[in-house]
Amino acid sequence: MIYGLGIDLADIDRVWDLAVRKPEFIAKFLTPREQSELTKFKGIHAAEFVAGRWSAKEAYSKAYGTGIGHELSFLDLELINNAAGRPEFTKHPFAGRVHVSITHTNKLVMTEVILEQV
Length: 118
Fold this sequence. Notes:
Elements: E1 2-11, H1 12-21, H2 24-29, H3 32-38, H4 43-64, E2 78-81, E3 87-91, E4 97-104, E5 108-116
Antiparallel strand pairs: 1-5, 2-3, 4-5
């Protein structure tokens, strides 16, 4: 049974520009493990990674029903690619299954998160 559905659309350049101008921004929303994953990417791929994680966490917070704030922070969520390269939430507060999809153009990233009760 579906508990929640969240979507988000973000401008890749806007998110990446913030990350470049304010390096502390990365530590406020990427876990140490995600930051380690980020080091594997360069250029546009790094920008896509950062914007994708930002957007996926926003989508999760919408599906969860709280938004980002007192009940749920960016660092409560961790999104790591599995061995096949598919992103998976490896840390999150929801007790059920989490489905995530990330897609992008050269300017925008769109994410969808479905929270499923099992």
